[in-house]
Amino acid sequence: MDIQDLIHNFLAGGRDMADFEAKAEEGMRISKSFAPMALDTALDIIISTMQDPMGPQSCGLKFNCAVGRFQDAMPSGNSIARSRRFVESYPNVLRATISFLTRKQSRADHTFMMKCLEECRCDKSDIQACGSVHSSTPCGDARIFLLSKGAPVYCSIVILIDHILLVLTNMTHGKFRQAKKGVTSSREEQHWPQGPDDLLPNGVVDSVEGFNVWAADKECGHFILRLAGTIAHLYPIFGAEITRRGPEFHLGLRRPAQHLTAAMDAYDHRPPWWEPSKDDARFAIPLVYSLHFIGHLYTGGKHTHSAMMVTGGKQILLPVLLRGIGILSHPTMSSLFADEFFEMNYLMSVINARMQDSLFCLERLTDLKNQWFMVLQNAHQGGCYNVTCSSKSNVVHAQKCSNCQLIRYCSAKCQKEAWTDRQYPHKTICPKIKSLREQLGPSAWTRVTTPTVNFTFAGFKSLCTKKKIDTELLKEVGMHIACLQGFQTIYQEKNSS
Ligand SMILES: [Zn+2]
Ligand SMILES: [Zn+2]
Ligand SMILES: [Zn+2]
Protein backbone atom coordinates (compact mmCIF):
# COMPACT_ATOMS: atom_id res chain seq x y z
CA MET A 1 0.00 0.00 0.00
CA ASP A 2 1.54 3.30 -0.98
CA ILE A 3 1.53 6.37 1.18
CA GLN A 4 -1.34 8.10 -0.60
CA ASP A 5 -3.52 5.07 -0.05
CA LEU A 6 -2.53 4.96 3.56
CA ILE A 7 -3.28 8.59 4.15
CA HIS A 8 -6.45 8.36 2.18
CA ASN A 9 -7.56 5.38 4.17
CA PHE A 10 -6.58 7.15 7.32
CA LEU A 11 -8.86 10.01 6.41
CA ALA A 12 -11.72 8.18 4.83
CA GLY A 13 -11.84 4.89 6.61
CA GLY A 14 -13.19 6.02 9.94
CA ARG A 15 -16.01 3.51 10.20
CA ASP A 16 -14.16 0.76 12.03
CA MET A 17 -12.43 2.40 14.98
CA ALA A 18 -9.78 -0.29 15.59
CA ASP A 19 -8.91 -0.28 11.93
CA PHE A 20 -9.00 3.49 11.89
CA GLU A 21 -6.54 3.77 14.78
CA ALA A 22 -4.18 1.20 13.30
CA LYS A 23 -4.13 3.11 10.05
CA ALA A 24 -3.69 6.42 11.81
CA GLU A 25 -0.69 5.00 13.64
CA GLU A 26 0.74 3.61 10.44
CA GLY A 27 0.20 6.99 8.76
CA MET A 28 2.03 8.70 11.63
CA ARG A 29 4.90 6.20 11.51
CA ILE A 30 5.39 6.73 7.80
CA SER A 31 5.06 10.48 8.08
CA LYS A 32 7.92 10.47 10.60
CA SER A 33 10.22 8.90 8.06
CA PHE A 34 10.09 12.06 5.98
CA ALA A 35 11.31 15.49 6.98
CA PRO A 36 8.28 17.47 8.14
CA MET A 37 6.89 19.96 5.69
CA ALA A 38 8.24 23.47 6.23
CA LEU A 39 5.56 25.97 7.22
CA ASP A 40 6.42 28.16 4.24
CA THR A 41 5.95 25.19 1.93
CA ALA A 42 2.60 24.47 3.55
CA LEU A 43 1.48 28.08 3.11
CA ASP A 44 2.56 28.02 -0.54
CA ILE A 45 0.57 24.83 -1.10
CA ILE A 46 -2.54 26.21 0.62
CA ILE A 47 -2.51 29.43 -1.35
CA SER A 48 -1.55 27.99 -4.74
CA THR A 49 -4.14 25.20 -4.47
CA MET A 50 -6.93 27.69 -3.92
CA GLN A 51 -5.65 30.03 -6.63
CA ASP A 52 -5.41 27.24 -9.20
CA PRO A 53 -7.45 24.31 -7.88
CA MET A 54 -7.41 22.46 -11.18
CA GLY A 55 -3.77 23.11 -11.99
CA PRO A 56 -1.23 20.32 -12.35
CA GLN A 57 0.25 21.05 -8.92
CA SER A 58 -3.05 20.82 -7.07
CA CYS A 59 -3.87 17.79 -4.97
CA GLY A 60 -6.50 17.59 -2.29
CA LEU A 61 -4.43 15.30 -0.08
CA LYS A 62 -1.40 17.57 -0.29
CA PHE A 63 -3.68 20.53 0.44
CA ASN A 64 -5.10 18.73 3.43
CA CYS A 65 -1.64 17.92 4.80
CA ALA A 66 -0.61 21.55 4.29
CA VAL A 67 -3.64 22.80 6.23
CA GLY A 68 -2.77 20.21 8.87
CA ARG A 69 0.76 21.61 9.04
CA PHE A 70 -0.66 25.14 9.35
CA GLN A 71 -2.93 23.91 12.17
CA ASP A 72 0.07 22.39 13.94
CA ALA A 73 1.80 25.76 13.89
CA MET A 74 -1.12 27.35 15.75
CA PRO A 75 -0.36 28.24 19.35
CA SER A 76 -1.60 25.45 21.57
CA GLY A 77 -4.06 26.00 24.40
CA ASN A 78 -7.53 27.40 24.45
CA SER A 79 -6.82 31.08 24.07
CA ILE A 80 -9.02 32.37 21.27
CA ALA A 81 -7.15 35.67 21.27
CA ARG A 82 -3.84 33.92 20.64
CA SER A 83 -5.30 31.76 17.88
CA ARG A 84 -6.81 34.84 16.31
CA ARG A 85 -3.50 36.72 16.40
CA PHE A 86 -1.84 33.73 14.76
CA VAL A 87 -4.43 33.53 11.99
CA GLU A 88 -4.35 37.30 11.47
CA SER A 89 -0.64 37.13 10.87
CA TYR A 90 -1.29 35.18 7.67
CA PRO A 91 -3.60 37.58 5.81
CA ASN A 92 -2.63 36.13 2.45
CA VAL A 93 -4.11 32.75 3.49
CA LEU A 94 -7.33 34.51 4.50
CA ARG A 95 -7.43 36.43 1.22
CA ALA A 96 -6.82 33.30 -0.84
CA THR A 97 -9.56 31.45 1.07
CA ILE A 98 -12.25 34.08 0.69
CA SER A 99 -11.36 34.54 -2.96
CA PHE A 100 -11.59 30.77 -3.52
CA LEU A 101 -14.99 30.51 -1.84
CA THR A 102 -16.56 33.48 -3.61
CA ARG A 103 -15.38 32.82 -7.15
CA LYS A 104 -18.28 32.72 -9.56
CA GLN A 105 -18.63 29.24 -11.00
CA SER A 106 -21.27 27.13 -12.68
CA ARG A 107 -22.48 24.05 -10.83
CA ALA A 108 -20.80 21.83 -13.41
CA ASP A 109 -17.47 23.65 -13.13
CA HIS A 110 -17.68 23.42 -9.35
CA THR A 111 -18.32 19.68 -9.43
CA PHE A 112 -15.46 19.21 -11.85
CA MET A 113 -13.14 21.27 -9.67
CA MET A 114 -13.98 19.26 -6.57
CA LYS A 115 -13.39 16.06 -8.50
CA CYS A 116 -9.96 17.27 -9.59
CA LEU A 117 -9.14 18.09 -5.99
CA GLU A 118 -10.15 14.68 -4.73
CA GLU A 119 -7.51 12.91 -6.74
CA CYS A 120 -3.82 12.83 -6.14
CA ARG A 121 -2.14 13.48 -9.46
CA CYS A 122 1.28 14.12 -8.00
CA ASP A 123 4.45 12.80 -9.56
CA LYS A 124 5.33 9.86 -7.37
CA SER A 125 8.67 9.09 -8.97
CA ASP A 126 10.49 11.28 -6.46
CA ILE A 127 9.27 9.52 -3.34
CA GLN A 128 11.18 11.86 -1.02
CA ALA A 129 9.71 15.05 -2.46
CA CYS A 130 6.26 13.59 -2.85
CA GLY A 131 6.34 11.92 0.56
CA SER A 132 7.23 15.05 2.48
CA VAL A 133 4.33 17.10 1.09
CA HIS A 134 1.86 14.29 1.72
CA SER A 135 3.05 13.11 5.07
CA SER A 136 2.52 15.93 7.52
CA THR A 137 -0.29 15.06 9.86
CA PRO A 138 -3.43 15.38 7.77
CA CYS A 139 -6.16 17.49 9.28
CA GLY A 140 -9.57 16.19 10.08
CA ASP A 141 -12.58 17.87 11.52
CA ALA A 142 -15.21 16.22 13.66
CA ARG A 143 -17.91 18.29 12.01
CA ILE A 144 -17.32 16.54 8.68
CA PHE A 145 -18.11 12.88 8.32
CA LEU A 146 -15.04 11.17 6.96
CA LEU A 147 -16.95 8.92 4.64
CA SER A 148 -16.97 10.62 1.30
CA LYS A 149 -13.92 10.62 -0.91
CA GLY A 150 -13.69 14.39 -0.86
CA ALA A 151 -13.50 14.49 2.93
CA PRO A 152 -9.89 15.75 3.11
CA VAL A 153 -10.73 18.73 0.91
CA TYR A 154 -13.87 19.52 2.88
CA CYS A 155 -12.05 19.22 6.20
CA SER A 156 -9.41 21.65 4.97
CA ILE A 157 -12.02 24.11 3.80
CA VAL A 158 -14.05 24.10 7.00
CA ILE A 159 -10.86 24.67 8.99
CA LEU A 160 -9.94 27.62 6.78
CA ILE A 161 -13.50 28.96 7.16
CA ASP A 162 -13.02 28.79 10.93
CA HIS A 163 -9.92 30.93 10.55
CA ILE A 164 -11.83 33.55 8.61
CA LEU A 165 -14.65 33.53 11.16
CA LEU A 166 -12.14 33.95 13.96
CA VAL A 167 -11.12 37.25 12.37
CA LEU A 168 -14.57 38.40 11.26
CA THR A 169 -16.36 37.75 14.54
CA ASN A 170 -13.89 40.04 16.25
CA MET A 171 -14.77 42.97 14.01
CA THR A 172 -17.15 45.75 14.89
CA HIS A 173 -20.25 45.89 12.71
CA GLY A 174 -19.39 47.71 9.49
CA LYS A 175 -15.84 48.65 10.53
CA PHE A 176 -12.84 47.35 8.64
CA ARG A 177 -9.21 46.93 9.57
CA GLN A 178 -6.80 49.83 9.31
CA ALA A 179 -3.70 49.58 7.16
CA LYS A 180 -0.49 49.25 9.14
CA LYS A 181 1.00 52.70 9.64
CA GLY A 182 4.28 53.50 7.95
CA VAL A 183 4.48 50.13 6.24
CA THR A 184 4.76 50.34 2.51
CA SER A 185 4.60 46.61 2.05
CA SER A 186 2.35 45.09 -0.56
CA ARG A 187 -1.28 44.48 0.25
CA GLU A 188 -0.63 40.78 0.75
CA GLU A 189 1.13 41.50 4.00
CA GLN A 190 -1.44 43.95 5.28
CA HIS A 191 -4.22 43.13 7.72
CA TRP A 192 -7.36 41.59 6.28
CA PRO A 193 -9.99 42.89 5.54
CA GLN A 194 -9.38 46.57 4.92
CA GLY A 195 -12.60 47.38 3.14
CA PRO A 196 -15.47 45.85 1.16
CA ASP A 197 -13.18 45.16 -1.83
CA ASP A 198 -10.78 43.31 0.39
CA LEU A 199 -13.54 41.46 2.26
CA LEU A 200 -15.10 40.26 -1.00
CA PRO A 201 -12.37 40.52 -3.63
CA ASN A 202 -14.65 39.12 -6.34
CA GLY A 203 -17.26 41.82 -5.77
CA VAL A 204 -20.61 41.56 -4.02
CA VAL A 205 -22.62 40.25 -6.98
CA ASP A 206 -20.17 37.52 -8.02
CA SER A 207 -19.53 36.56 -4.39
CA VAL A 208 -23.22 35.91 -3.88
CA GLU A 209 -23.13 33.63 -6.93
CA GLY A 210 -19.94 31.96 -5.73
CA PHE A 211 -21.34 31.22 -2.29
CA ASN A 212 -24.57 30.03 -3.86
CA VAL A 213 -22.80 27.18 -5.63
CA TRP A 214 -20.75 26.17 -2.59
CA ALA A 215 -23.79 26.35 -0.34
CA ALA A 216 -25.49 23.59 -2.34
CA ASP A 217 -22.83 21.17 -1.24
CA LYS A 218 -24.10 18.33 0.91
CA GLU A 219 -20.90 18.07 2.96
CA CYS A 220 -19.99 21.64 3.62
CA GLY A 221 -22.83 23.83 2.35
CA HIS A 222 -23.92 24.73 5.85
CA PHE A 223 -20.40 25.89 6.71
CA ILE A 224 -20.62 28.22 3.73
CA LEU A 225 -23.99 29.47 5.02
CA ARG A 226 -22.43 30.22 8.37
CA LEU A 227 -19.66 32.22 6.71
CA ALA A 228 -22.09 34.02 4.38
CA GLY A 229 -24.32 34.88 7.35
CA THR A 230 -21.43 36.38 9.27
CA ILE A 231 -20.41 38.45 6.25
CA ALA A 232 -24.02 39.60 5.76
CA HIS A 233 -24.09 40.68 9.38
CA LEU A 234 -20.86 42.66 9.11
CA TYR A 235 -21.50 44.07 5.69
CA PRO A 236 -25.26 44.55 5.12
CA ILE A 237 -24.86 45.33 1.41
CA PHE A 238 -23.90 41.69 0.92
CA GLY A 239 -26.99 40.44 2.76
CA ALA A 240 -29.15 42.88 0.82
CA GLU A 241 -27.83 41.45 -2.45
CA ILE A 242 -29.06 38.03 -1.37
CA THR A 243 -32.50 39.09 -0.19
CA ARG A 244 -32.94 41.47 -3.15
CA ARG A 245 -33.00 38.43 -5.43
CA GLY A 246 -36.11 37.16 -3.70
CA PRO A 247 -37.15 33.75 -2.47
CA GLU A 248 -36.47 31.91 -5.71
CA PHE A 249 -32.76 32.64 -5.54
CA HIS A 250 -31.42 29.54 -3.84
CA LEU A 251 -29.02 31.13 -1.42
CA GLY A 252 -31.84 33.10 0.17
CA LEU A 253 -34.19 30.41 1.41
CA ARG A 254 -33.77 27.16 -0.46
CA ARG A 255 -30.21 26.41 0.65
CA PRO A 256 -30.88 26.87 4.35
CA ALA A 257 -34.11 24.89 3.92
CA GLN A 258 -32.11 22.14 2.20
CA HIS A 259 -29.59 21.87 5.04
CA LEU A 260 -32.27 22.07 7.71
CA THR A 261 -34.11 19.27 5.95
CA ALA A 262 -30.93 17.18 5.77
CA ALA A 263 -30.43 17.70 9.50
CA MET A 264 -33.98 16.58 10.26
CA ASP A 265 -33.68 13.58 7.94
CA ALA A 266 -30.55 12.61 9.86
CA TYR A 267 -32.50 13.01 13.09
CA ASP A 268 -35.30 10.79 11.81
CA HIS A 269 -32.75 8.13 10.86
CA ARG A 270 -30.68 8.47 14.02
CA PRO A 271 -29.14 5.24 15.27
CA PRO A 272 -30.47 3.78 18.55
CA TRP A 273 -27.39 4.92 20.47
CA TRP A 274 -27.72 8.53 19.30
CA GLU A 275 -27.84 11.14 22.01
CA PRO A 276 -28.60 14.81 21.44
CA SER A 277 -25.48 16.95 21.51
CA LYS A 278 -24.58 20.44 20.38
CA ASP A 279 -21.74 19.27 18.14
CA ASP A 280 -23.37 16.39 16.35
CA ALA A 281 -22.14 16.57 12.76
CA ARG A 282 -25.28 15.36 11.05
CA PHE A 283 -28.01 17.09 13.05
CA ALA A 284 -26.85 19.90 15.33
CA ILE A 285 -24.18 21.51 13.15
CA PRO A 286 -26.28 21.93 9.99
CA LEU A 287 -29.25 23.03 12.12
CA VAL A 288 -27.33 25.68 14.03
CA TYR A 289 -25.36 27.00 11.05
CA SER A 290 -28.38 27.24 8.75
CA LEU A 291 -30.44 29.12 11.32
CA HIS A 292 -27.50 31.39 11.99
CA PHE A 293 -27.50 32.28 8.31
CA ILE A 294 -31.24 33.01 8.05
CA GLY A 295 -31.09 35.15 11.16
CA HIS A 296 -28.11 37.18 9.99
CA LEU A 297 -29.55 37.79 6.54
CA TYR A 298 -31.97 40.12 8.18
CA THR A 299 -29.21 42.69 8.68
CA GLY A 300 -29.24 43.22 4.93
CA GLY A 301 -32.41 45.21 5.01
CA LYS A 302 -35.73 44.98 6.68
CA HIS A 303 -37.86 45.47 3.61
CA THR A 304 -36.27 43.10 1.13
CA HIS A 305 -35.90 40.55 3.91
CA SER A 306 -39.49 40.63 5.06
CA ALA A 307 -40.67 40.66 1.44
CA MET A 308 -38.66 37.51 0.82
CA MET A 309 -39.90 35.92 4.02
CA VAL A 310 -43.54 36.66 3.40
CA THR A 311 -43.60 35.68 -0.28
CA GLY A 312 -41.26 32.69 -0.18
CA GLY A 313 -41.12 31.83 3.48
CA LYS A 314 -44.54 30.24 3.67
CA GLN A 315 -43.81 27.86 0.85
CA ILE A 316 -40.14 27.13 1.31
CA LEU A 317 -39.36 27.61 4.97
CA LEU A 318 -42.57 27.09 6.89
CA PRO A 319 -42.86 23.31 6.35
CA VAL A 320 -39.23 22.93 7.48
CA LEU A 321 -39.79 25.11 10.52
CA LEU A 322 -42.89 23.19 11.52
CA ARG A 323 -40.95 19.96 11.29
CA GLY A 324 -38.05 21.43 13.25
CA ILE A 325 -40.22 22.79 16.02
CA GLY A 326 -41.84 19.39 16.22
CA ILE A 327 -38.43 17.78 16.78
CA LEU A 328 -37.14 20.39 19.18
CA SER A 329 -40.29 20.49 21.28
CA HIS A 330 -39.16 17.32 23.02
CA PRO A 331 -38.08 18.48 26.51
CA THR A 332 -34.42 17.35 26.31
CA MET A 333 -34.13 18.83 22.85
CA SER A 334 -35.72 22.18 23.65
CA SER A 335 -33.40 22.80 26.57
CA LEU A 336 -30.29 21.86 24.60
CA PHE A 337 -31.36 23.81 21.53
CA ALA A 338 -33.19 26.64 23.28
CA ASP A 339 -31.79 29.33 20.97
CA GLU A 340 -32.61 27.36 17.84
CA PHE A 341 -36.08 26.53 19.11
CA PHE A 342 -36.66 30.17 19.78
CA GLU A 343 -35.23 31.22 16.44
CA MET A 344 -37.54 28.86 14.57
CA ASN A 345 -40.54 30.14 16.48
CA TYR A 346 -39.43 33.63 15.77
CA LEU A 347 -39.01 33.00 12.04
CA MET A 348 -42.46 31.51 11.98
CA SER A 349 -43.84 34.71 13.51
CA VAL A 350 -42.04 36.71 10.83
CA ILE A 351 -43.44 34.54 8.05
CA ASN A 352 -46.91 34.79 9.49
CA ALA A 353 -46.44 38.54 9.89
CA ARG A 354 -47.31 38.21 13.55
CA MET A 355 -44.76 40.71 14.77
CA GLN A 356 -44.83 44.39 14.06
CA ASP A 357 -42.36 45.13 11.33
CA SER A 358 -41.30 48.45 12.79
CA LEU A 359 -40.09 46.74 15.91
CA PHE A 360 -37.57 44.48 14.25
CA CYS A 361 -34.16 45.16 15.58
CA LEU A 362 -30.92 44.62 13.72
CA GLU A 363 -29.07 43.32 16.71
CA ARG A 364 -31.69 40.85 17.78
CA LEU A 365 -29.48 37.80 17.44
CA THR A 366 -26.61 39.11 19.48
CA ASP A 367 -28.59 39.40 22.68
CA LEU A 368 -31.14 36.85 23.80
CA LYS A 369 -32.76 39.38 26.09
CA ASN A 370 -33.78 41.26 22.99
CA GLN A 371 -35.76 38.27 21.78
CA TRP A 372 -37.67 38.04 25.01
CA PHE A 373 -38.21 41.78 24.95
CA MET A 374 -39.73 41.55 21.49
CA VAL A 375 -41.98 38.73 22.56
CA LEU A 376 -43.27 40.76 25.48
CA GLN A 377 -43.73 43.85 23.33
CA ASN A 378 -45.66 41.87 20.78
CA ALA A 379 -47.51 39.54 23.13
CA HIS A 380 -50.79 41.30 22.39
CA GLN A 381 -50.37 40.76 18.66
CA GLY A 382 -50.73 37.01 18.93
CA GLY A 383 -54.49 36.81 18.88
CA CYS A 384 -56.04 34.17 21.13
CA TYR A 385 -53.48 32.27 23.20
CA ASN A 386 -55.38 29.04 23.38
CA VAL A 387 -53.26 26.73 21.22
CA THR A 388 -56.24 24.80 19.94
CA CYS A 389 -58.36 27.87 19.24
CA SER A 390 -59.84 27.78 15.77
CA SER A 391 -59.79 31.54 15.35
CA LYS A 392 -56.95 32.57 13.06
CA SER A 393 -57.33 36.25 13.70
CA ASN A 394 -54.44 38.22 15.17
CA VAL A 395 -56.73 40.88 16.66
CA VAL A 396 -56.23 41.96 20.24
CA HIS A 397 -59.00 40.26 22.16
CA ALA A 398 -60.79 41.92 25.04
CA GLN A 399 -60.80 38.88 27.28
CA LYS A 400 -57.56 38.72 29.21
CA CYS A 401 -56.27 36.78 32.17
CA SER A 402 -56.96 38.93 35.22
CA ASN A 403 -54.03 37.51 37.15
CA CYS A 404 -51.12 38.06 34.73
CA GLN A 405 -52.89 40.76 32.68
CA LEU A 406 -50.92 39.86 29.58
CA ILE A 407 -52.33 36.78 27.91
CA ARG A 408 -55.53 37.33 26.00
CA TYR A 409 -58.24 34.99 24.75
CA CYS A 410 -61.11 35.21 22.32
CA SER A 411 -63.58 33.68 24.76
CA ALA A 412 -64.04 32.30 28.27
CA LYS A 413 -64.06 28.84 26.74
CA CYS A 414 -60.59 29.34 25.26
CA GLN A 415 -59.29 30.77 28.51
CA LYS A 416 -60.54 27.72 30.36
CA GLU A 417 -58.98 25.31 27.87
CA ALA A 418 -55.64 27.14 27.88
CA TRP A 419 -55.41 27.02 31.68
CA THR A 420 -54.93 23.27 31.59
CA ASP A 421 -53.42 22.86 28.11
CA ARG A 422 -51.57 19.56 27.86
CA GLN A 423 -48.27 20.97 26.65
CA TYR A 424 -48.25 24.58 27.73
CA PRO A 425 -50.82 25.09 30.49
CA HIS A 426 -51.29 28.75 31.33
CA LYS A 427 -51.49 27.90 35.02
CA THR A 428 -47.74 27.19 35.11
CA ILE A 429 -46.63 30.47 33.54
CA CYS A 430 -49.37 32.82 34.81
CA PRO A 431 -47.82 33.38 38.29
CA LYS A 432 -44.43 33.94 36.66
CA ILE A 433 -45.76 36.59 34.31
CA LYS A 434 -47.42 38.22 37.29
CA SER A 435 -44.15 38.18 39.20
CA LEU A 436 -42.34 39.76 36.26
CA ARG A 437 -45.05 42.42 36.03
CA GLU A 438 -44.64 43.18 39.73
CA GLN A 439 -40.86 43.35 39.46
CA LEU A 440 -41.18 45.89 36.66
CA GLY A 441 -43.91 47.98 38.29
CA PRO A 442 -47.06 49.32 36.58
CA SER A 443 -45.65 52.08 34.38
CA ALA A 444 -42.63 50.08 33.17
CA TRP A 445 -44.91 47.09 32.53
CA THR A 446 -47.11 49.18 30.27
CA ARG A 447 -44.08 50.43 28.36
CA VAL A 448 -42.65 46.92 27.96
CA THR A 449 -45.88 45.36 26.73
CA THR A 450 -47.01 48.11 24.42
CA PRO A 451 -45.60 48.01 20.90
CA THR A 452 -44.04 51.38 20.22
CA VAL A 453 -40.99 52.55 18.34
CA ASN A 454 -40.11 54.97 21.14
CA PHE A 455 -39.21 52.29 23.63
CA THR A 456 -36.20 50.42 22.30
CA PHE A 457 -34.19 47.43 23.43
CA ALA A 458 -31.55 49.72 24.93
CA GLY A 459 -34.27 51.26 27.12
CA PHE A 460 -35.51 47.83 28.11
CA LYS A 461 -32.01 46.65 29.01
CA SER A 462 -31.31 49.57 31.31
CA LEU A 463 -34.75 49.13 32.84
CA CYS A 464 -33.94 45.47 33.61
CA THR A 465 -30.66 46.48 35.21
CA LYS A 466 -32.25 49.25 37.25
CA LYS A 467 -35.08 47.05 38.49
CA LYS A 468 -32.79 44.03 38.95
CA ILE A 469 -35.05 41.83 36.83
CA ASP A 470 -34.45 38.10 37.19
CA THR A 471 -33.04 37.04 33.80
CA GLU A 472 -34.16 33.44 34.26
CA LEU A 473 -37.71 34.55 34.85
CA LEU A 474 -37.58 36.79 31.79
CA LYS A 475 -36.27 33.89 29.73
CA GLU A 476 -38.92 31.50 30.98
CA VAL A 477 -41.75 33.88 30.21
CA GLY A 478 -40.32 34.82 26.80
CA MET A 479 -39.78 31.21 25.80
CA HIS A 480 -43.22 30.16 26.95
CA ILE A 481 -45.03 32.82 24.95
CA ALA A 482 -42.90 32.15 21.86
CA CYS A 483 -43.64 28.44 22.15
CA LEU A 484 -47.36 29.09 22.45
CA GLN A 485 -47.22 31.13 19.25
CA GLY A 486 -45.22 28.41 17.52
CA PHE A 487 -47.53 25.62 18.53
CA GLN A 488 -50.54 27.62 17.56
CA THR A 489 -49.11 28.02 14.07
CA ILE A 490 -48.42 24.29 13.89
CA TYR A 491 -51.97 23.55 15.01
CA GLN A 492 -53.46 25.93 12.49
CA GLU A 493 -51.33 24.60 9.64
CA LYS A 494 -52.28 21.02 10.48
CA ASN A 495 -55.94 21.84 10.58
CA SER A 496 -56.00 23.86 7.41
CA SER A 497 -54.37 21.15 5.30
ZN1 LIG B 1 -0.89 14.29 -4.28
ZN1 LIG C 1 -59.72 31.33 21.20
ZN1 LIG D 1 -52.57 34.59 33.43
From TrEMBL:
Which domain of life does the UniProt lineage start with?
Eukaryota
Coiled coil stretches, renumbered: none
SUPFAM superfamilies per record: HIT/MYND zinc finger-like (SSF144232)
Output the Gene Ontology terms for molecular function. zinc ion binding
> Record's InterPro entries?
Znf_MYND
List, for all copies, the residue spans of the domain called MYND-type: 386-430
Q: Keyword annotations for this protein?
A: Metal-binding, Zinc, Zinc-finger
Please state what the protein is called: MYND-type domain-containing protein
